[in-house]
Amino acid sequence: MKVLSDKPSSVWSKNLKEFKAFNQKSLQVIKRAQTIKKSLTSLVENQTNKVVFKDFENLYYSNFLQSYYLKETLTLAYVKLLVFNNLIFKNAFLMGLKKTLQKLYNKKVFLNLVNQKYFYLNSDIFIKVLATRIRDRKARALIEMRKALSKVALPKFNLYLSKKKSSLNLLDQKIVNSIKYKHVNGIRIEAAGRLSKRLTASRSVFKLAYIGNLKSTDLTLNKKSSVMLRGGVKPNLSYTNLNMKTRNGAFGLKGWINNN
User: Fold this and answer.
1) What are the residues whose beta carbons fall under 8 Å from the beta carbon of 256, sequence distance 6 or more?
2) Do residues 126 and 148 make contact, with C-beta atoms less than 8 angstroms apart?
3) From CA 231, how far away is CA 247, in angstroms rounded?
4) Where are the domains of the chain?
């Protein structure tokens, strides 16, 4: 028979110490709030103005709790975001989304979700993120465009292919080589419209930023023929045109992403 010791564990003792310290601080905060409330009400003569300080103690104490448990609230917020991101791809969430889409379109809907590692792989996502950043009045359009392009990693094709040949099997090499448009070779962004900070007499501005090039490697390096989609649309380019409104006016964003 094992006899349980009456002494609390180390974790329990730590929790008791933290709880006692919190009680002492909370009592000090309540006393401080009462003294401040008395001093404020003594300065005010009218009864109508004294009603304003009725919930002063509760507000003072709630601010203390928010500052005391700041780390805990932040961790809970991040955990909620992680749980939400995991639940998005579960069947329970997708079935509800599928039903609502079927009601909107009055037809059957099939969801094909693709998990993207980098936001610049799709032109629609890339331009939408950039537009939300430029929409802020404090931000400058050209600086935000250059920041977005600095996060794009352009591969060096010769080094990349030489490394892959040594590490992959013959079958894997054939599969990788057969896949087209798997590398981002260049991005071009154009912004035009009311992008100036001043509110009165705001002028239309044109900004341009690019990285890499928009040329197709099949045509330039390998000298192969490439297919044209829908007349003049090139298969290696993904194009997005987005318009947004601000307090100063409207502005437009155009983006081209070259995949090879």
Assistant:
1) 123, 187, 188, 214, 237, 238, 239
2) yes
3) 38
4) 10-68, 119-259
Q: Left if phi > 0, otherwise alpha if psi is -120 to 50, otherwise beta: which for 221? A: alpha
Look up residue 114 and give its DSSP letter: -
Least confident of 15-19, 101-105, 136-140: 15-19
Predicted pLDDT of residue 162 = 44
Rg over CA atoms, the chain: 30
Given a cut of 60, whether residue 138 has pLDDT beyond it is yes
Phi, psi for residue 233 in degrees, rounded to 5 = -85, 125
192 CB neighbour count, 10 Å cutoff: 16
Contact present, 255 and 188 (Cβ < 8 Å): yes
Q: How far apart are CA 82 and CA 131, in angstroms?
A: 25
CATH number for region 119-259: 3.30.1140.32
Q: Find all residues with CB under 8 Å of 188, minimum gap 6, and list them.
A: 208, 209, 210, 214, 255, 256
What is the residue-wise DSSP string for 33-84?
Answer: HHHHHHHHHHH--SHHHHGGGTTHHHHHHHHHHHHHTHHHHHHHHHHHHHHH
* Of residues 129, 110, 104, the one with CA closest to residue 118: 129
